Amino acid sequence: MSADAALARQIAAEAGELLLGIQAAGTLGKALGDAGDARANRFILDRLRAERPDDFVLSEEAADDPARCAARRLWVVDPLDGTQEFCQGRSDWAVHIGLSIDGAPVVGAVALPARGLAICTDQCRAPSAANIPPRVVVSRSRPPAEAVKVADAIGGVLVPMGSAGAKAMAVVLGEADAYVHSGGQYVWDNCAPAAVALAAGLHVSRLDGSPLVYNRADTYLPDLLICAPALAGTILAVLNA
C-alpha cells in the first residue's frame, strides 16, 4: 500500500502543479476550467496507465468502463475538484487520486495546489484539539439543511468553502470539526477524501452511518459525513432522529 500511496501523492501533486500553470497562464472563466479538466485528466490517466497498467481507472472526465465492477482495484479520480473555484482564482479547489480495493476507500491523496499541500493516506493524523465553537464546513452555494441542523445541535458555526476535497481536508487538518454533505456527490468527489480522512483516524460514513462503498455500477454517492470521532455519535443521532 505504501507504493500506491506514494504514487497517489506524486500524481496529485504533479497534476496540481500543472493546474497552477494553466491557471497562471489563462484567463479566468469557463474556458480555463475546461482546459484544466481536460489537461489534468489526460496527465493523470497517462500516469496511472503507465504505473498501474493492470488496474482500472474511473475519472469524472473520462468514459466509464463497466468492466471495472469486477475488479478488486479501482483508481477513482477527480482531476479538478472545484472547477468553479479554480476558474475564479480561489484557493479552495483540489485534485483527488483515490484507490478503492474491494469497494473500500483504502489509499488516496488530495492535493490543495494553491496551498502547496498534498495530503496522503500514509502521512496524515487526526487533529488533537477541537475548534471552539465547532466549525462545520459546507458548500458555498447550497449549505444543506442537515448541516444547519448539526451546527445548531453542537453549538457550531457554518464555514462556507469550495470543493469537496478542500472541505474534507479542512477537517483532516484540524481547521474544521465536521463536514456534512447531502444533495448529491459522485464517487470521484469523495473517494480520495474519504481514504485520507479514514487514514487520519476520523469518522467517515454516509449520513445514516453506513460505510461509503465504491466500484458499484452506479457512480452516484450523494451524502457524506467526515468528523472528529468524538462528535460522530452526537451528529449521527441528530441526523437520524
TrEMBL record:
Keyword Metal-binding in annotation: yes
This protein's UniProt keywords: Magnesium, Metal-binding
Cited Gene3D superfamilies: 3.40.190.80, Fructose-1,6-Bisphosphatase, subunit A, domain 1
Cofactor: Mg(2+)
Superkingdom: Bacteria
Chain residues that bind Mg(2+): 60, 78, 80-81, 189
GO biological process entries: 3'-phosphoadenosine 5'-phosphosulfate metabolic process; sulfate assimilation
InterPro entries (UniProt xref): CysQ/Inositol_MonoPase, Inositol_monophosphatase-like
GO MF, any single term: 3'(2'),5'-bisphosphate nucleotidase activity
Name this polypeptide is given: 3'(2'),5'-bisphosphate nucleotidase
